[in-house]
Every structure is written in structure tokens, then in C-alpha cells.
Write a structure and sequence with these properties.
It is a single chain. A 3-stranded antiparallel sheet has the order 1-2-3, with no helix packed on it. The longest helix is centred in the middle third of the chain and has 25 residues. By secondary structure, the chain is α+β, with helices and mostly antiparallel strands. Helix 1 runs antiparallel to helix 2. 48% of the residues lie in helices and 23% in strands. It is rod-shaped and about 90 Å long. The protein has 2 domains: 52 residues; 31 residues, no CATH class. The mean pLDDT is 84. This is DUF6458 domain-containing protein. InterPro entries: DUF6458 (IPR045597). Keywords: Membrane, Transmembrane, Transmembrane helix.
Length: 87
């Protein structure tokens, strides 16, 4: 499940809670089911959002070249974490 699933649950719950006007014989309260789906969708949305924001990526790059002045090999390494250079 992800952010889209959370939004879909919220939308389906809102439709059931506010737009559907059906009496199912007293056994099932369609409005209560709508409110439960909206709450579940909000929880799924928030949990997915937290996981997306916590996702970290580290990229290390290395470049080797020869210094034309003295012929020595020079290696440059850079590591970034979520786009920000690490020091």
C-alpha cells in the first residue's frame, strides 16, 4: 500500500459517508463504514508519507585522471546523501 492507496481509501470512505443514502436494514451502517475507511486511509497515507520521507540514498562516485604536469594519477571521490554532499 502506498500514498495512492491511502488517498483512494479516503475518497471511497467519503463517498460512502457523505454521498450514499441507502438503508441496508439496520444491520450495516454505511456511513460508519465510510468513516472507518477514511480513518484507515489517513493512517495508510501518513505511514506511507513517513516511509517516503525517511528513504535515504547514498551515491559514491569516483573519477581518475592523469595530471599532465607530472604524470601522476589523480583520483577524485565524492559521496552524496540525498543530493547533499557529505563532508
Amino acid at each position: 500500500m502506498g500514498i495512492g492507496s491511502g488517498i483512494a481509501l479516503i475518497v471511497i470512505g467519503a463517498i460512502l459517508a457523505f454521498a450514499v443514502n441507502v438503508d441496508l436494514g439496520g444491520y450495516v451502517d454505511i456511513h460508519l463504514i465510510g468513516y472507518i475507511l477514511m480513518a484507515a486511509g489517513a493512517v495508510v497515507f501518513l505511514i506511507s508519507l513517513i516511509f517516503v520521507l525517511r528513504r535515504r540514498s547514498t551515491v559514491s562516485t569516483s573519477h581518475t585522471a592523469v595530471d599532465p604536469a607530472n604524470g601522476q594519477s589523480v583520483t577524485t571521490r565524492r559521496t552524496t546523501d540525498n543530493g547533499d554532499p557529505l563532508v
